[in-house]
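Please decode residue identities from the backbone states below.
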């Protein structure tokens, strides 16, 4: 089997198409494992992983924890709310304290963009970025592409629109990098105020009309409005946002074609997506969650095999 070109997963920006292919092949194997009656392999019995979550998370944290357990790694969990970070300790001190307990890998979610890169330069462990502010969320983008590949056969050549709050979304940026790396065509759609200036430089097109974007795409990835990252208003009212950028069944039915609907969660039902769409056969939202465990197992397994060398 091949090996990753990197020792850390800090962002999709830093990996290659070959890395993505290797992660997906490995995830195929682990997906088969987690559907067995005994969902565990002994591969990482000698690896200890610390999950450091300095920002809220449900899905991503549980998904990493399950991935680690199914690889038989030892793991410890830390969440900022109950830690000494509140007492003024620096990130490096916190992490070095944890590493002195002989931890091999750190999975970290942090509100500051670049926190993972910073850590990888200062501590001696393999770092996995589980979301750094509005910057990147590489494992989410990998599981999203993996889910497209599973549903449509391949990612290359597919038309994917990412809808919503592109400006504040790490899921959007990592997805753009991942989809372009694999040769998909990407559009972003949302209020002009929530689309970063010069985003075309990343090789994506901007479409502010949701109907037109949907007529073009094979896959629509609906994002949540990241209210927690906004200190000013970016659109007049939620009602107006829903009218222009919310996905509902009437709109989907009027298209006369089938589109695959994705969402990274957590869903705000009735805002970016209505319940009848989220719960419909077109939506692969729960497949994404299931694939998340297999993809994270693959990432951890491949990074751990580089530590062991
Ligand atoms: C996303 C996140 O936290 O970046 N959720 C996730 O990881 N599944 C997206 C979001 O919070 O809207």
């Amino acid at each position: 089997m091949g090996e990753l070109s990197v020792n850390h997963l800090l962002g999709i920006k830093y990996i290659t198409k070959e890395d993505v292919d290797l992660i997906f092949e490995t995830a195929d194997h682990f997906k088969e494992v987690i559907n067995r009656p005994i969902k565990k392999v002994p591969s990482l019995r000698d690896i200890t992983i610390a999950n450091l979550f300095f920002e809220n998370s449900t899905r991503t944290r549980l998904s990493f924890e399950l991935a680690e357990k199914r690889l038989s790694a030892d793991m410890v969990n830390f969440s900022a709310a109950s830690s000494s970070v509140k007492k003024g300790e620096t990130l490096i001190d916190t992490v070095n304290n944890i590493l002195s307990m002989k931890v091999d890998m750190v999975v970290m979610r942090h509100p500051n963009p670049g926190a993972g890169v910073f850590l990888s330069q200062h501590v001696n462990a393999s770092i996995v970025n589980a979301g750094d502010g509005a910057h990147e969320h590489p494992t989410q983008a990998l599981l999203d592409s993996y889910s497209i590949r599973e549903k449509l056969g391949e990612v290359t050549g597919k038309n994917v629109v990412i809808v919503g709050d592109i400006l504040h979304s790490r899921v959007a940026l990592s997805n753009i990098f991942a989809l372009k790396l694999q040769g998909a065509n990407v559009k972003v759609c949302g209020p002009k105020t929530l689309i970063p200036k010069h985003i075309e430089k990343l090789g994506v097109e901007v479409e502010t009309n949701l109907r037109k974007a949907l007529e073009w795409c094979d896959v629509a990835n609906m994002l949540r409005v990241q209210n927690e990252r906004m200190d000013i208003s970016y659109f007049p009212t939620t009602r107006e946002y829903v009218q222009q950028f919310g996905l509902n069944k009437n709109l989907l039915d009027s298209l006369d074609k089938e589109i695959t609907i994705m969402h990274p969660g957590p869903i705000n039902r009735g805002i970016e997506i209505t319940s009848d769409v989220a719960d419909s056969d077109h939506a692969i939202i729960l497949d994404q969650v299931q694939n998340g465990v297999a993809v994270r197992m693959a990432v951890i397994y491949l990074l751990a095999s580089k530590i062991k060398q």
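Observation: Residues 285-307 form the longest helix (23 residues).
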